[in-house]
Every structure is written in structure tokens, then in C-alpha cells.
Amino acid sequence: MHNIAVVGCGYWGPNLLRNFRSLTKCNVKTICDLNADRLNHMKELHPEIRTTTEFKEVVQDPKIDAVAIATPVFCHFDMAKQCLLAGKHVLVEKPMASSVEECNILNNIAVQRGLTLMVGHTFVYSPHVRKIKEIIQSGELGNILYISSRRLNLGLFQKDINVAWDLAPHDVSIILYICEEGPISVNCQGKAHLTEEIEDVTNMTLNFSNGGFATIQSSWLDPHKIREMKIVGTEKMLVYDDLEPIEKIKIYDKRVNRPPHYDTFAEFHYSYHYGDVYSPYIKQIEPLKVECKHFLDCIETGSKSDSSGFEGQRVVEILEAALRSLKDGGGKVNIHDENTDGPPTIIQSSIAL
Asked: Does the domain spanning 124-287 belong to CATH 3.30.360.10?
């Protein structure tokens, strides 16, 4: 039985709390938040759980062996670092930290101390995303030509990160998971309309070594909430709409064929294929519950998580490159090749442990 502390009870923390409480392998011992009113509300809902506004009490409690962190991004590094140094396993929400260097330090500590460090890339645990990966690996879509993702809504505006850092980690983690490779370069353009230097609309392009690419559109300034990803292959096309209540995945038997040979321009005609559309049956399971259980399983077995700190570092590396491109007017920023296959290289850092 693992004793868990949940740190941060704003928007996402209560969801972590609910799912951990539903699992038999753990006991939620402590809830921590700076907002006393919020803690009082949580105490009314869960009177058996201890509450505190002092994070150091979580770190110093020897009976707590794992911590779930759901705080603003600028807190992630320091809180995760303190927990790891205290010998506690850590589940930290996305993005993992504010820089690749910070991610690298956290991974270094976790490896050296044999601790589980996992990032809350919740969509990796979605049965629909896992089905998409299965479909791609089966070859049903053919060779993937491109991926187009849109994650749009009105708000919620953040004060410390732009919309790409807020929303794009979901899409980046999905793309890395289903493609099993990272991009070699990134382009990003955007605009800050309401808060200076905090972009509320961005368009990101991930370029891959095989010539494929993925586009990610993120916005806090859209009249409609949209959560859509389109995957276009040489044989079929797939649309993943996470807002659909039942048929979230639809596969379109559509494609365009180029004529194999022709002698004159008059003989050149593209061949358009229009076939059926179908939606595979997928059993509905809450991804966050799967994620929480996976965290506990990794603690017990010592196995690598599907959203380990290394995957978290990859996502932050892409976000950092996108931010450099954004500030440079959208120019291409290369990503280190050594970080596309296998775990990112753990390097010495200038930030003190």
C-alpha cells in the first residue's frame, strides 16, 4: 500500500485525488495547497484526509512515499526536485518543467536514486490514442503523409506560460507516442493579443526525418472548443475528435492516386478513391485512472513508464525549440538527433542539485 500526497487542488488536483482514492494499491494521506479556502472545501469532501498549506510537511513526512504534483508550471521543478531528493516517487503534470535543463536534472536524480518519475501526459493512456497507434502500426493507413491537430477554446488564459506551453503538450505527446519518433526540427508562429509576450494563438510545425510533418494549432481565442487530430495516410485517413461522446475515431477509406505512367499531359489524371467510413468500437475507460494505476505499477515493478521523465523531457525540448522559433519570427529550429531515439542523454547541468 503506497501513501500518496496530492499537491495542488485547483483545476486538476481533485481529479488526481478522485482517481487515486478509487485504487486499492494506494492511500491518499495528504492534500496540500496554498489556498486555505480550497483546502477547507476538500476537507469537507474528504474528512479522512489530512490537509496542509505547507509543502515542506509533505517532503518531510517519511510515511509519504509518492507525490502527485498539479501546480503551475513554474513550481514543477523545485517541488519535484525536493520530493525526489527526499526519496519519493513523483508524478508531475505537464509540461514537466520550464526548461530542458530542469528536466534533465530531475531525470538525473530519479535515475541515480532508483525512483519513478512520471509526467501527466494523460492522452497517452487514452484507449482511443492507443487504438490509433495500433491502427498506424497495422499499416491500414499506409505511409503517414502528415498529421494536423487543433486544440482551441476561449481561455483559460495563463499568466506564466503561452498557449503553446499550455495546450500543445497534449498534441506533442500524442504524436510522439503514435509515431514512435521525434521531429528533427520545429517551426512556430504566433501572436500575443491580450497579454504582452504571452502568445494566445500559435501554429507549430514538427518536421520529421522521413519527410513527414505535423501541424499543431493552439488557441485561447476561439469561439468553439475543438479537440481534433487528422492523420492522412497514403491508403486511408483517420479523424480523432476527442469531444465526440462515442465515435471519437473515424476512418475514411479515401485517397488520391497518381497515374503510374503517361506520355502526354492530356493522359495525366489523378485518381480519387472514395470508400466507406467506419468507427471502431472502443471500450470507454477514463485515461487518468489508467495513468494513476500505471504510476503505482511502475513504482512496484521499477519498470519504465509510458510517460516517463524522458518522454517529458522530449516534449519540453520541442516546446523550447518552438519558443525560440516563435521569438525568431517562425524560423526553423533544429532538434538534437540523439534525443529522437532512446532516452535523452543525461548531461551535467549548471543548476545545482
From this structure: yes
